[in-house]
Amino acid sequence: MEIIILEGTPKTPTVEFKPLEGYLLLRGRSIPENSIEFYKPLIEGLEAYNQNPQPTTNVDIQLEYFNTSSSKCVLDVLKKLEVINGNSKVTINWYYEEDDEDMLEAGEDYQAIINVPFKMVEVEE
49 with 87: CB under 8 angstroms? Predict the structure, then answer.
């Protein structure tokens, strides 16, 4: 299992996946040219992680904006976490700014689809 660290850009989020710590961070904007290509290493990394996950897995999602193609990829990441939740206690912290109804709603929509505990975390702008 490899650590995945991707520095955020104006179009892509910061990604930190630290399998030995059982930690995943997605932060920033997600509007890459090719969402599937961008998220592919992370999804493959999560598949590998599921072979030998940590007892607990903590996920922080702090996206300020994502486009439609990214929303599908985020859902794919969450589906992998749902599978991992069978072997590891997964907790997803979904961060949203206090006035950002869209991001809160997106988190609630994912929460309704994915059978993993979500914590909605409101942050000041």
Answer: no
Cβ neighbours of residue 7 closer than 8 Å, sequence gap 6 or more: 14
Q: Which residues of the chain have pLDDT under 70?
A: none
pLDDT digits (tens, 9 = 90+) for 8-25: 999 999 999 999 999 999
- Pairing assessment for the beta strands 14-18 and 89-97 based on DSSP bridges: unpaired
Query: Residue 80's domain spans which residues?
Result: 4-123
- For residue 11, give the CATH number of its domain: 3.30.750
Number of domains in the chain: 1
pTM: 0.95
How far apart are the C-alpha atoms of 75 and 79, rounded to whole Å? 6
